[in-house]
Amino acid sequence: VSTAAQIAADPVPSAPNFYQAGKGIGAWLLTKDHKRIALMYLAAMTTFFLVGMTIGVFMRLEQLTMGPTLMKPTTYNALFTLHGVIMIFLFVIPGLPAVFGNFFLPILIGAEDVAFPRLNLLSWYLFMIGGFVALTSLFTGGGPPDTGWSFYVPYSVTTGTNVTMAVLGAFILGFSSILTGLNFITTMHRLRAPGMTWMRMPLFPWSLYATAWVQVLATPILGITLLLVILERVFHLGIFNPAMGGDPILYQHLFWTYSHPAVYIMILPAMGAISEIIPTFSHRTIFGYRAIVYSSMAIAGLGSLVWAHHMFTSGMSDFAVVVFSLLTFLVAIPSAIKVFNWVATLYKGSIELRSPMLYALGFIFLFSIGGLTGLFQGALAVNVHIHDTYFIVGHFHYVMFGGTGFAFFAALHYWYPKMFGRMYNERTAVVAWAHIFVGFNLFYFTFLVMGMQGMPRRYYDHLPVFHTGHIVSTVGSWIMVAGLLMMFVNLARGLRKKVEVPANPWGGVTLEWTIPSPPPVENFAKQPVITEPPYTFNPATKEATA
Amino acid sequence: MNVEAGSHAPAHRDYVGAKLGMWLFIFTELILFGGLFVAYSMYRFMNPHDFHHASGELNVPLGVTNTVVLLTSSLTMVLAIVAIRLQRKAQSMLFLATTIVLGLVFLVIKTFEWSAKFHHGLYPGAEHLLTRPPGERLFFGLYFGMTGLHGLHVTVGVVLLSVMLVLLYRDRIRHDDFVKLENSGLYWHIVDVIWIFLLPLFYLAA
Question: Which of B9, B21, B43 has its CB closest to that of A115?
């Protein structure tokens, strides 16, 4: 690769890396360096993830036995709400864009920083304030919210628990998300390196581009919806209150107009990260670069038109229901295109099964199950049967955790040496991955089965017929959590051990592997000039992406 | 950039990038209000007569006056930008100050209108409003929700323009670097445009 060779031949070893420039907590809290902001997001999100995970463990423990053992039903209601709010708003939605997008988007397009570095820092502060407000709702007012993460009216307006504060937290988090999206779009339009045409941009930035548009265009709808819930609670506006002439179904429409596109905010960057990892560990150019690019944009577009498939049992005209069902099936096409492209990339590649690759392959497998079970719910008759059962819970954990979660861990293991200039223990990483993968399937596949049999979601208790399933699932959760803890400990221990990490430990060909690990403050000593399509591993494969 | 991190890179200015970012932000504002406009259209479709009747309660002359006030403020906003581009700093500051004053006039008139409605018991949660048909309750719920959010935006705009006035005074906005002022102007115009839709939907529906 000419760009890589060009820069590698001209190293500036004296340039301080971004850890060395500016010490002390103040230098971090006031930084405008996208790399530092990314790490601050990572620290915050790891904490939130561990909190959300712990809550999940307690929910599984309660389901290990029949009847109330560990907690009262109301506590269980509060726990699933918190688990949802924390995992969705504080981990899965912001996860990949805020951490890896911030760190690697500018580097992947050959830029020094994002377009608005100060706004980027503001996004982080809004994220922290929003998270803080949401978590404060636990301990103040009428107690932790118990509405579920979707805050459905009329219950969210009438419950005495501290919904107002939790909703306000989500509103602030939405603001943070919008500003990040706006920043990324502008960055990609204005700061691509000379020679990096749109069709030479790597696929992670492309997925962030599609995501950013959804963030900018969909999040304000969540903003106004949550604002209306607050206004309903405080001023009794009546918009969603049937007694005042309002309609609760309008809330569901507005909520899902954002929250369905939001699942594409969650999954698109994950797909982008996978598109980076698969070629590197197959040592082969990505198959169907353009198809992946267009399918990202298609998912962003189509995904914005399918929201009412969450409401098939809420009451809608037959015509509307059929249209939304059809559109839902259409989204499967671009998603499948991506899966086929990743698998085709593996074909005749020189596959290296390192831990990031294992997570990536895990992603493909779990995401496929998650995606296909989604189609069950898009089918109208089946939907009525499995609506509000464990099937839907199993489905979105396959997509959100098996998909985005695994991609997040894949990206973490892939870019770890670049971000920290350190290395984790590969063998432990693989063992941890195996635990997570096996535990995950035991945990959530059982959910799919129980859902088909009729186990309703959000119940603190279950009938004897589901008892075996719940035991299997809870045991699965233990294996998975053991794996997750092993993974985090392994990554944390890696930070402490000083080792020399080469600039390009995996043999990757994108721009981040041309600069030292960890990167210098300015990213590039010399402005990179791009002369080739991305993922060009050898001249023979050039035509494939040209 | 990164001054505290010891960077030596010169601060670069990207006029097009700054404008692009602002336009994206304006999209989000439009969609934020869009949710309310959807609610309005749905409920008006469901209760055409109640909306028609409730609209008659609003003070049309005051609504029209406020429209004129806001439109004039948009004009002075543009003139402030033109003036600074022609290096007429004093003139630019005068126009910008006029814009701020007109924004405040709008808010004052709005306050009078709101207090009149409160006086007549036409606000969400009022005993009197509960005796009215559901469509009228919704109308006033939406009226306070939408003009309230709009008023909040005018307030933010007034604060923003006041900051710009200070920056102008301190020569941080100049004839060759005025994108901050221009972006603030864009924000001010979008607040105007939203009002232009609110006027017929609420005041002229009768």
Answer: B21
Nearest to A232 by CA among A293, A297, A152: A152
Question: Is there a contact between A22 and B6 if contact means CB atoms under 8 Å apart?
Answer: yes
Q: Model ipTM? A: 0.90
B 18-77 near A (Cβ less than 8 A): 20-21, 24-25, 27-29, 31-36, 38-39, 42-43, 47
- Specify the 3-state DSSP secondary structure of B5: helix
Each residue's pLDDT tens digit, A490-533: 999 999 988 889 999 999 999 999 999 999 999 999 999 999 99
Say if pTM beats, i.e. exceeds, 0.95: no
Distance of alpha carbon A61 from alpha carbon A182, whole angstroms: 42
What are the residues whose beta carbons fall under 8 Å from the beta carbon of A420, sequence distance 6 or more? A494, A495, A517, A518
Distance from B91 to chain A by nearest Cα, in Å?
31
DSSP-derived secondary structure letter, B125: T
Q: What share of chain A is helix, strand, coil (3-state, %, to 5)?
A: 70, 0, 30
Q: What angle (nearest 5°) sits at the alpha carbon of residue B129, between those of residues B127 and B135?
A: 145
Which residues in A lie closer than 8 A to residue B134 (C-beta atoms)? 244-245
- A162 token code pair: 């501290």
Q: A272, A297 in Cβ contact below 8 A?
A: no
Task: Write out residues 35-64 of A within 8 Å (CB-CB) of B.
Answer: 36
Contact between residue A414 and residue A276 where contact means Cβ atoms under 8 Å apart: yes
Q: Considering CB atoms only, which of B1, B31, B144 is closest to A220?
A: B31
* pLDDT 10s digits, A124-163: 999 999 999 998 988 888 888 999 899 998 899 988 899 9
